[in-house]
């Protein structure tokens, strides 16, 4: 793979060493051109293509479904993961017994958890062991009042990647719900919703989807929708029968049985169309090739960090638990280190009390050397205690 050619598709690389894809991936030029072309159609044709674009959206759903081993009709796009989790919570809430709870992880991003707690759904938090949540430790926390587990695939702060396959199998055996926030894992890391027995999966696409702020992918298993149909609806959730617009006086509207029920109304079709270009771009490189590259880059970074006075907090002994995120603490001075690096055009972020660096397909070893030199320079200059 000619990684330098890929790098040229990302103008951001001329400006800085960019390690913030876990916040938002920059947009590569072919995707930017697709966005422009979709918006140009609005300029030149107004609403004339809207119905056709709604049809084209099915092709985007179909690509996502193939990547997840789901079905096109199980995919929806919603404004963000907080919305997807709120919709899930609203559906489930009605059918929970008052003393039931969900298990979740202590360092979850709040869009996995806050929607549930705000609705009054009790959450019990599992504590990590050196940033890891082993499946066995989670199973130990389950009791007769547990309704299911809400977890990220990849933890946003540490990059720990959960073993969804083992966890999903165990939950299915116990007839418990499995709700996954795949924001920091999709599309690069393997997900098979069927094998992993996932009931609900949401992924904010602005992280690794390379198309800007386009919303979240929202997968629901058909059995989940049958048992917990959407608690909110809009005109596009309803099967109109004939034509496009359902009759306004229709007093008992028929909700789509597919995930279309979650598409309440009009959404940003332009960015979603361009997202297909991003997925095609990624798939042309190949997901296996990408994962290998990410591990090569993070191996190099971890190796370099072992020579610096930092504490790597990302679990990194096993590739199965690793992701594109490497987080480390620089004594008590991680926030100052982030500021120092950014001043030197090395773009990392602070999450909790650590420096978070996320590598992507456009990063090269030169970027990593800049980051490592930057961290070393900071440690040399600043007393860390
Ligand atoms: C794991 C995770 N989930 C979700 C989000 C974003 O949530 P939302 O789509 O609700 O803005 C982030 C980061 O912003 C994240 O790191």
Give descriptors for this structure:
385 residues, alpha/beta, Aspartate Aminotransferase, domain 1, Aspartate Aminotransferase, domain 2, seven-stranded mixed sheet, four-stranded antiparallel sheet, 14 helices, binds pyridoxal-5'-phosphate
What does this structure look like?
This protein has 385 residues and is of the alpha/beta class. The chain has two domains: 3-28 and 286-381, Aspartate Aminotransferase, domain 1 (Alpha-Beta Complex), CATH 3.90.1150.10; 49-281, Aspartate Aminotransferase, domain 2 (3-Layer(aba) Sandwich). The chain is 41% helix and 14% strand. The protein contains 14 helices and 13 strands. It has helices at 3-8, 12-15, 29-45, 50-68, 81-93, 110-118, 135-141, 164-173, 205-208, 222-227, 269-285, 287-305, 334-343, 365-381; strands at 17-18, 75-78, 101-105, 123-126, 146-152, 177-181, 200-204, 216-220, 311-312, 325-329, 346-347, 349-351, 354-358. The strands form three sheets. Strands 2-8-7-6-5-3-4 form a seven-stranded mixed sheet, with helices on both faces. It has a four-stranded antiparallel sheet with strand order 9-10-13-12. Strand 12 (349-351) and strand 13 form a beta hairpin. Helix 5 (81-93) packs parallel to helix 6 (110-118) and helix 12 (287-305) runs parallel beside helix 14. The longest helix is centred in the N-terminal third of the chain and has 19 residues, at 50-68. It is globular and about 70 Å long. The protein starts with a helix and ends with a helix. The mean pLDDT is 96. Pyridoxal-5'-phosphate is lined by residues 80-82, 109, 111, 152, 156, 181, 183-184, 204, 216.
């Amino acid at each position: 793979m000619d990684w330098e050619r890929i790098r040229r598709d990302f103008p951001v690389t001329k400006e800085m060493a960019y390690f913030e894809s876990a916040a938002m991936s920059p947009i590569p030029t072919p995707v930017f051109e697709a966005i422009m072309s979709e918006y140009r159609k609005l300029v030149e044709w107004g609403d004339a293509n809207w119905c056709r674009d709604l049809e084209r959206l099915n092709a985007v759903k179909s690509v996502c479904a193939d990547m997840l081993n789901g079905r096109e009709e199980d995919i929806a796009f919603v404004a963000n993961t907080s919305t997807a989790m709120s919709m899930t919570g609203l559906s489930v809430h009605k059918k929970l017994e008052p003393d039931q709870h969900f298990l979740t992880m202590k360092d979850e991003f709040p869009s996995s958890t806050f929607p549930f707690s705000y609705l009054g759904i009790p959450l019990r938090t599992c504590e990590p062991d050196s940033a890891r949540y082993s499946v066995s430790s989670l199973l130990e926390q389950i009791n007769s009042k547990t309704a299911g587990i809400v977890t990220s695939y990849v933890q946003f702060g540490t990059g720990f990647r959960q073993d969804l396959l083992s966890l999903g199998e165990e939950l299915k055996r116990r007839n418990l719900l499995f709700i996954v926030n795949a924001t920091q894992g999709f599309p690069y890391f393997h997900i098979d919703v069927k094998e992993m027995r996932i009931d609900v999966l949401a992924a904010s696409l602005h992280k690794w989807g390379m198309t800007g702020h386009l919303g979240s992918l929202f997968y629901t298993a058909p059995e989940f929708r049958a048992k917990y149909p959407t608690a909110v609806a809009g005109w596009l959730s309803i099967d109109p029968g004939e034509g496009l617009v359902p009759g306004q006086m229709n007093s008992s509207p028929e909700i789509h049985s597919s995930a279309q029920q979650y598409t309440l109304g009009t959404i940003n079709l332009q960015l979603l169309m361009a997202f297909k270009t991003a997925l095609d771009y990624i798939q042309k490189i190949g997901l296996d090739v990408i994962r290998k590259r990410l591990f090569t880059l993070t191996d190099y970074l971890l190796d370099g960090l072992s020579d610096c006075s930092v504490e790597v907090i990302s679990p990194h002994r096993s590739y199965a638990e690793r992701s594109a995120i490497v987080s480390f603490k620089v004594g008590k001075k991680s926030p100052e280190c982030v500021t120092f690096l950014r001043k030197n055009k090395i773009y990392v972020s602070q999450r909790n009390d650590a420096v978070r660096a996320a590598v992507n397909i456009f990063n090269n070893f030169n970027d990593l050397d800049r980051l490592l030199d930057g961290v070393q320079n900071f440690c040399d200059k600043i007393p860390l205690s």
